[in-house]
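Example record for the data management plan.
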Amino acid sequence: MDGKLTYAAHVPEGDGPFCTVILLHGWGASAQDLLSFAPYLHGGKTLVLCPQGPVSIPIGYGMRGYGWFPLVPGQPPDVEAFHRGADALRAFIRQVLEHYPIDRERMVIMGFSQGGTMAYDIALRDPAHYAGMAALASWFPEPLAETLPKLPEHEGFPVLVIHGTHDDRIAVEKARKSRESLRPYGVAMTYREIEGMGHEINQESLRIIIKWLDEKAFGQQR
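Corresponding structural encoding:
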């Protein structure tokens, strides 16, 4: 498939259409970073697509990681760069919808860390096209909360928020603030704090994700 974003894919056996997860990595990672979770989602029968952020980051020893928009410590995100990353993702999703046998009633967007901020933007601006969204160790950016219109499709839209209480990169207070910022939209929120978890996806959080996908996102028609 031609496209501007590099990506990795787990494609189940069969002809589809498939339940699908668009899985977005965090700052400094790559398209391969989260693909290992694919066999656990919906019993390995989920089509999992992992695009790679367009921002290249040197991480030492000649290696590079990737992000969705530049991060500068102590400074708020560049709003224009954020939107460029989101636009690149929207173009990617349009392309994969044409290329893969995706069940359009059961397509979820899920992001870890910086990838979660992109998931918020993509899903909440166009909730009618997704079965749900999940933000893992992430945050709901204030500029997005300030500009996002309230849509009828937000009501009852499945949203999963998971955060570790010992996250040393994105404090759990940001997840709590995100939860409160989401409430006015009327989404069907599942919020979980995992005691002792750091900036990661551990076994407990994976169990929550699997249950949420099967019961709240893939288990219903929107």
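Summary line stored alongside the record: The chain has a mean pLDDT of 93.
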